[in-house]
Design goal:
With 317 residues, this protein is α/β, with parallel strands linked by helices. The chain has two domains: 218 residues, P-loop containing nucleotide triphosphate hydrolases (Rossmann fold, 3-Layer(aba) Sandwich); 69 residues, Alpha-Beta Plaits, CATH 3.30.70. Helices cover 36% and strands 26% of the residues. It has a six-stranded mixed sheet, with helices on both faces. Strand 4 and strand 5 form a beta hairpin. Helix 3 runs parallel beside helix 5. The longest helix is centred in the middle third of the chain and has 17 residues. It is elongated and about 80 Å long. InterPro entries: AAA+_ATPase (IPR003593), ABC_transporter-like_ATP-bd (IPR003439), ABC_transporter-like_CS (IPR017871), ABC_transporter_ATP-binding (IPR050763), P-loop_NTPase (IPR027417). This is Putative ABC transporter ATP-binding protein. One of its GO terms (molecular function) is ATP hydrolysis activity.
Length: 317
C-alpha cells in the first residue's frame, strides 16, 4: 500500500550486463520523489536510455530491484506500466494512421476508456489539433515528435519519462514541451527527463543526477549541487604581460595565460568565497604594481559542473 511519503520510484542495485560483456548499468541506486522533476544528465552511452528501458519493461535487468508506486515491478509490471508514460528518442509510429486515431489507440492500449475531450486537450496543448486528421507520414519531423509526446500523455501517466524529448527539434516545439512540463508539474505528475540541453535542466529540474559509464556519480538538489560544486572563474586582462605570478598572490589558485597577458583564477566553493577572493586578488595586484585593464568573471553553470564531473570520472577510470 502506498503512503504519501513513499517514493514513486525506488531503484536499488540496478545492474545490466549485455551478452558481449558491456556493463550498461553498474549498481545504480536512485529514489524519485512523487511530483518532482528529475533531470538525468550524461554523455552518449552513459546508461540513461538503458535505465529508462529497465523501468519501462523494455530492458531485462541483470540484477537489482525496481519498485514503482510501492510495488516490485518484477511481479507487477503490467499494472504499473499503465501508470507510466514514455517519450522515446526514436520515432515509433504507424505512419499511415491519423494523428487523432493514433493518440486514441495509445490511450486504449494502456487501459483507458475513450475520452475525446482529453484527446483534444492534449493535441491542442502541443499545437496538433489542426493536424488531427493528417496521416502521420505527411507531418514534419518536429510534428512527428509532438505526436510521440501526445501518445505518452494520452493515458494520463503519473510517472513520465522524457528521453531526449527536444533533441534535434525546432525552438517552437521546445517551448511547447517545457510549457507542457510546467502544466504537468502543477498536476502533480512526476517527470524524469534526459537532455543534452543542460540549460533546460538547470531551469526546469528540482534535482539532478549525473551518470557516466553506467555509474550514477551524483544525485542532489539542483541548487545545493550548484552551491556545493560551483566555482568562480575570473580573468584579469593585464595592461602589460608578466613572466611570473606576484608573491602576494601565492595563496590563491591563479595561473598565467596568453603569454603572461592574462591572470586566471578558478576557485571558491559556491558560497561566495570566490567572489571575495577575486576582490582580494584585485587589491593585491594594485599593491604589487600590476595594472589590469579588464576583469571577466562568471559563476559555474550546471553545464560546467556536469563537464567537470565527467572529466574527473574519466581521469579516475
Amino acid at each position: 500500500m502506498e503512503t504519501i511519503h513513499e517514493p514513486i520510484l525506488d531503484i536499488s542495485g540496478l545492474t545490466k550486463v549485455y551478452s558481449g560483456g558491456l556493463k550498461a548499468l553498474d549498481n545504480v541506486d536512485l529514489t524519485i520523489r512523487r511530483g518532482e522533476i528529475f533531470a538525468l544528465l550524461g554523455p552518449n552511452g552513459a546508461g540513461k536510455t538503458t535505465l529508462i528501458g529497465a523501468v519501462c519493461g523494455m530492458v531485462r535487468i541483470s540484477s537489482g530491484t525496481i519498485r514503482a508506486f510501492g510495488e516490485d515491478l518484477a511481479g507487477n509490471w503490467r499494472t504499473a506500466r499503465q501508470r507510466i508514460g514514455l517519450v522515446p528518442q526514436e520515432l515509433g509510429l504507424d505512419m499511415f494512421d491519423t494523428v487523432e486515431r493514433q493518440i486514441g489507440y495509445s490511450r486504449g492500449l494502456f487501459g483507458r476508456g475513450p475520452d475525446p475531450a482529453r484527446i483534444e486537450e492534449v493535441l491542442r496543448s502541443l499545437s496538433l489539433w489542426d493536424k488531427r486528421n493528417e496521416e502521420i507520414r505527411k507531418l514534419s519531423g518536429g510534428m512527428k515528435r509532438r505526436v510521440l509526446i501526445a501518445k505518452a500523455l494520452a493515458h494520463d501517466p503519473e510517472l513520465l519519462f522524457l528521453d531526449e524529448p527536444t533533441a534535434g527539434v525546432d525552438v517552437e516545439l521546445r517551448r511547447d514541451m517545457w510549457r507542457q512540463i510546467d502544466s504537468l508539474r502543477e498536476q502533480g505528475v512526476t517527470v524524469i527527463l534526459t537532455t543534452h540541453y543542460i540549460e533546460e535542466a538547470e531551469e526546469m529540474a528540482d534535482r539532478v543526477g549525473v551518470i557516466d559509464k553506467g555509474r550514477l556519480l551524483l544525485v542532489d538538489e539542483k541548487e545545493a549541487m550548484m552551491k556545493r560544486l560551483g566555482r568562480t572563474e575570473a580573468h584579469f586582462i593585464l595592461a602589460s604581460p608578466i613572466d611570473r605570478i606576484p608573491d602576494a598572490l601565492g595563496a590563491f589558485p591563479v595561473t598565467l595565460a596568453d603569454d603572461g597577458a592574462t591572470l586566471c583564477y578558478r576557485g571558491g566553493d559556491g558560497t561566495g568565497k570566490g567572489k571575495a577572493e577575486v576582490a582580494e586578488i584585485a587589491t593585491a595586484l594594485v599593491h604589487s604594481g600590476v595594472a589590469f585593464t579588464a576583469l571577466e568573471q562568471k559563476e559555474s553553470s550546471l553545464e560546467d559542473i556536469f563537464v567537470d564531473l565527467v572529466e574527473r570520472q574519466g581521469l579516475a577510470a
